[in-house]
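Notes to self after the Tuesday call (sharing in case useful).
The group wants a holo model before anyone commits to mutagenesis around the pocket. I volunteered. Ligand is magnesium ion. Logging inputs and output together so the record is complete.
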Amino acid sequence: MGGSTQDGAERIHIYRTGGLAVPLLEFRGITKDYRLGKTVVRALRGLDLVVEEGEVIAIMGPSGSGKSTLMHIVGALDTPTGGTAFLDGQDLQQLKEHQLVALRGKKVGFVFQTFNLVQTLSAQRNVELPMIFQGIRKGERARRARELLIKVGLGDRVKHKPNELSGGERQRVAMARALANDPEIILADEPTGNLDTESGTPVLAMLKKLSVNDGKTVIIVTHDPDAAAIADRIVRLRDGCVVAVSSYGVEGESGVPSTGCDVDGSINEPSTLGTTTEGDDSHA
Ligand SMILES: Nc1ncnc2c1ncn2[C@@H]1O[C@H](COP(=O)(O)OP(=O)(O)OP(=O)(O)O)[C@@H](O)[C@H]1O
Ligand SMILES: [Mg+2]
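Result:
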C-alpha cells in the first residue's frame, strides 16, 4: 500500500488538474485558538497538511492533541485562527458562513464515533436527511437512500430505526448518510471507537473501498491500529502539531518524523516514529 501511494497520488493529481498541482486539501501553518474567558487554548499550533484526492489518511495522536479540531476545520464546521486553509482550491478563511454551509453540504460527509442518527427515523429517512437540505425531491431522495443502504449491505434494514440495529449496522447507516450528497471527502472521527473488531471490519473495508473504487478522499481520526492499517498515510499529531508521517507497507510501518511546527517556540522537538506509541493513543 505504502509504495504505491506516491504514484497513485501523482496520477490522480494530473487527472484532476490537467497537470497543475492543486491538492484537494492544503493547510499551511494552521493555528486554532479557543477562548474561554481570559484563557486561550491553542489547539493547533502551525500545522501543515496536504491531502491529495483519493487518499486515505489516518490522523492519530493522544487525547487533546487537536485531532477533532483539525477535522472540524477540514469539514468547514469551523475556521482556523491563523494560517491558510484551501479546500478544493477555495480559501476557507475568505468564505462567509452561508458559503461554508454550502461547501460542507456538497463536498463533505461526516461519520462520528456515536453514529449521530435520529432515533425516531428509519434508516432510510436518516439517509434522506442531508438530501432534504440540498433540496432533492422526495422520490429521488427515497430511491437514492435505498440505493446507498444496499451499497453498505443494509438493503434489508431500510425500515429499521437505529435502536433496532446493531452498532455496526448503525455505523453503516451513518456511512450511507455521509454519502447522500456524493461528497468528495469523507471525514470519520473514531468510526470504530464504539465497535468491536467484528463490526468494525466491514466499516473500515467500506471506507477503503470508497477511496479505491470511487476515488473519494477519506480522513479518519482513530486510535484503532486496524483503521490505521487501511490508510495510505498516517499523520501523527501531538500538542497541535504534526510530529510524524508514515505508512504501512509490507515491512510494517515506516516513515519520517516531521519537523513539527513552531509558532511560539514551545514545539520544536519532533518525536521520532515509534515514540508516539499506540499506548499514548489508546485512551478510548
Ligand atoms: N470548544 C472548545 N473550547 C475550548 N477548548 C477546546 C474546545 N474544543 C477543544 N478544545 C481544547 O483543544 C484541545 C484539542 O482538542 P481536540 O478535541 O481537538 O482533541 P482530540 O485530539 O480530538 O482529543 P480526543 O482524542 O480526546 O478526542 C484540547 O486541549 C481541548 O481541551
Ligand atoms: Mg476528538
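Two things stood out.
Residues 2-116+183-264 form a domain with the Rossmann fold fold (CATH 3.40.50.300).
The two ends are 27 Å apart (CA to CA).
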